[in-house]
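Structure, all two chains, one model.
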Amino acid sequence: MSAEARRLVVGPFNRVEGDLEVRLDVADGRVRAAFVASPLFRGFERILEGRDPRDALVIAPRICGICSVSQSHAAALALAGLEGIAPTPNGRVATNLILAAENVADHITHFHVFFMPDFARQVYADRPWFAQAERRFKAAQGASVRAAIATRATLLHVLGLLAGRWPHTLALQAGGVTRSADQRDKMRLLATLAAVRADLQDRLYGAPLEEVAALDGAAALEAWRQAGPASDLRLFLDIAEDLELAGLGRAHDRFLSYGAYPQAAGRLYAGGTFAGGTLGPLDPAAITEDHTFARMEGRDAPHAPFEGSTLPDGADEAGYTWCKAPRLAGAPFETGAFARQVVAGQPLARALAAREGANVRSRVIGRLVEAARTLIAMEGWVRELEPTAPWCAQGALPQEGRAFGLTEAARGALGHWVVVEKGRIARYQIIAPTTWNFSPRDRDGVPGPLETALVGAPVRQGETTPVSVQHIVRSFDPCMVCTVH
Amino acid sequence: MSRPAPFTVLWLQSGGCGGCTMSLLCAEAPDLAATLDSANIRFLWHPTLSEETGTEATALFEAVLAGEIALDALCVEGALLRGPNGTGRFHVLAGTGIPTIDWVRRLAGAARHVVAVGSCAAYGGVTAAGVNPTDACGLQFDGRRRGGALGEAFRSRSGLPVVNVAGCPTHPNWITETLMLLSAGLLGEADLDVYGRPRFYADHLVHHGCPRNEYYEYKASAEKLSDLGCMMEHLGCLGTQAHADCNTRLWNGEGSCTRGGYSCINCTAPEFEEPGHAFLQTPKIGGIPVGLPTDMPKAWFIALSSLAKAATPERLRRNATADHVLTPPAVKDIKRR
């Protein structure tokens, strides 16, 4: 037994969106402390300053090629706030479809392309499930990886039809969408969604989407693992049981969701916070960003986003990342599909949150349950579209004003805060999901969710890029290009 | 029978959004894996697809630099960041302590071909917009000027300059077809246009195949987004000037920007990110759009426009400012002419 700590610097961290470096202090075969660094700075908030506010719809989506629609949606909501308008009913429903298509596509990408290939690594060659994992999930080659990439491409036809293309569409506007759909388009959309449903039911779930969406507790999940249909989901549950993934990667268990997909009444997934077993309201005015360990000027005090700044300070030695530290009422929060389902009250997510909190297994289950629920909702939204009703309300931008737009990307809560002066963007601040999840320490030394989740992760003899650390990092489905933007 | 050695690709990302990779995964009929396999193209490493992470990945980069692994194409996605103060430290490649721009310069020297994937890697793109906070540039262009991270004189080992597969994002098949042509030895310098773009897609205009062409012909213009009319006169559409085959190749099934109801912003061009006006607004002088259609003399454009406006059928005039077709084309009895 040696208590001597060693330092590991892990990177480049691939199969996440963008570049990531993780510094680990390791002792006695466990991570003792973790420091998460976002090594890329581009300065989108500065790029937006001085522009016509409508240009945000061109610039902001290009923050991220995987959350492009989410960025577009947050910008459109902020513009709608400035103009004092809301989308038409068709605009609202089509926007839901466009955003949901991206979010479900991202869940599919995450599970098959980013997350599961780690279980096909040679380090697991002695496990009873390895042959199956290798056959289905070997990086870039596995049968399920390839099938999922094809299904994802099919799903993104929803974007081709309703939004021109993906990523980087201009179809989402403050008052709705730029393209109407007729009855024939609706049939085509339903055919696309049916093809996606068929592959996921055959291969990923082995069961109707409705059965996945209806999972209501730990017992039902365990029954599925033991006697459920052969499927990638069941393979994952077996792997999770064998490797005890439910015991890996727990953070603060404070969850945040802005709420997603407004419907005629309420949202499909209600927003709010969930902490200490209690649901709470979300107060956007309580959101701040702390720069103490970000290589950014403005370290004097935490900033509300309307007053925030993004002035990089390359000479800052205390800072170890370009990522700021967002806090809600002073505390770090975790966001993402699991958080969203917990806040929205999905019974399995609530049960897992109560029993074991957020961990590698529950974050993945949250995503898979949500993909099923969202696809079911999408089929209903297509039927709601009314071809001859208006698609895009028109508004006028004020010369002065401020507004924010809050939405949910696949990987969690995304907000844009914009201040307009003399008809131009005077200030634009963005807080992305992974900014929350991969936040650095704040002025009180409180680490962010991933930094907390990594503490205690086992490190095997001789590992330079510990596989347990990879599971934990990827369980968040990080998007690093959004994180710093 | 053993196959010949594969055409090897190493893919790095820097100052970009990763959207060109996300688009690449949308390749269909055949899908990405089958397309690459058909041409015996193999990714040595790709940030989204590969198993190797951390030291496994950097060991591979070192083996390429040492000449132990042959590299046929270095693909770079995202702008190259020179800042702050020329250090490149706005993107230090994780785990290496070395700025990504330096990795790219070293690896470019070991590659048979160098491919810029997307407008950021080609010219700087959106990452270089506005005050260009990170001093971003492309591999061999800095906006419209030659130069960039590798310099004007750079030639890869094949003798070609950087191949600029520009677009924001790139169409999946612009990438796969470029790689296939390179691997087949069928992409020479004459196959690139003045901005280094492969001519197989850059010799087309977005206007070609745009379903709003009838509105364009009669100058029946959209006045607001979601209108069906031509978006050139009022909404900033640059489809008549933008070099790409978006409306004949189509995206994600049956899409394109103009089919999605919004203007082409000419994203395959250097400095598209700074049009000098709001993207979705057409600048005009004396009521005439400043940007004329490619190869069109101004006097003729003005003459034709006024004639076309006078001749606009009522059907197009009505439909141009509606979000769905109000008046369908009349059905003629083909026996009566």
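The domain at 42-435+465-484 of chain A is CATH 1.10.645.10 (Cytochrome-c3 Hydrogenase; chain B).
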